[in-house]
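Protocol step 4 of 5: obtain the predicted structure for the target chain.
Materials: sequence only (see below). No template structures provided, no constraints applied. The aim of this step is simply to have a reference model before the mutagenesis design in step 5. Sequence pasted as it appears in the construct record:
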Amino acid sequence: MTSDSLETRAAERMSSILTSRIGMMLVAVAALLALPALVAVFNVPSVVGLATQMLIYAIAAISLNLVLGYGGMVTFGHAAFFGLGGYTVGILYQHFADNSAFLGLVPGSDSLLIAIAAAMLVSAIGAAVIGSLSLRTSGVPFIMITLAFAQMVFFLFVSLKAYGGDDGLMMRRRDVMPFFNARGDTNYYYLCLVAAACWFVLTACIVRSRFGFVLSGLRQNERRMAAIGVAPYRYRLVAFVIAGAGAGLAGALMANYLRFVSPDMMHWTKSGELMMMVILGGAGTLAGPLLGAAAMVLLETLLAAQTENWQLYMGCILLAIVMLTRGGLATLFSRLSGIRS
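Step 4 output (structure tokens):
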């Protein structure tokens, strides 16, 4: 067989894979867009709320996947940025309701756009501070330092009685947007769908850029990348900050969805939950965190409705999926559909 024929077959194979992936993506987008209408037909309105939570957790999992799956940085502090985003929204709303200012300087707001932008900024700054110190280590010390910082943030908000302390912070109603009613559940679902799609596309652009290739290269062989002049610390810190901003976006959306924030949003168990979503769906794949978040939220809801010991069954199911699929749900779906990367 000549080299030309091999190249032709490879090109045809690649074209077939791309066509299949685009087709599956279009089907998934159509299903997500049609979900509220289908829910109305079958009279199961709670599904809209469940899907909204899936989308919000998917944003947090996608952002974690950038540092965990592509960067190889195992962090146990990602929920700190998720909680910082949520508390930014809650604190802004409380000062808006009280007609006061945060630290006497920053006025409150019930604008969703302002709250989301502030949440992403605060979370990104938090990630820059924590990342700049944590990334001076690697391996187990890095895991322990990120965990320690996350617990420090957790106990900080537990001690802030002015913002609810242990009891958390309530929001009377969701924030508002100009020309869009974000307080309706169906509208809020579409808002989260747009946010998840935008963050997915942004992440896809990042991992396919030179920055993304360098990040993956650092995960595979840091010494070789350093030998060709790449500064590992700088690239990893930028990835850490972007991931923090993504978690802040998810936290802001969750705070508005629940109209409630509490220190539990930033507990280390929440970081473990987000990490499990990434591993379950497939670390280092674009679709993996989406599938992992959807599977985790769905399993938790179904099992909790059946038994009080749902964590036991949840653990068994997750263990079986991770062990048997060898790459998570994304790999499983690729095998079933015949698409191999």
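Step 4 remarks: Residues 110 and 144 are 37 Å apart (CA to CA). The first strand starts at residue 101 and ends at 102.
Proceed to step 5.
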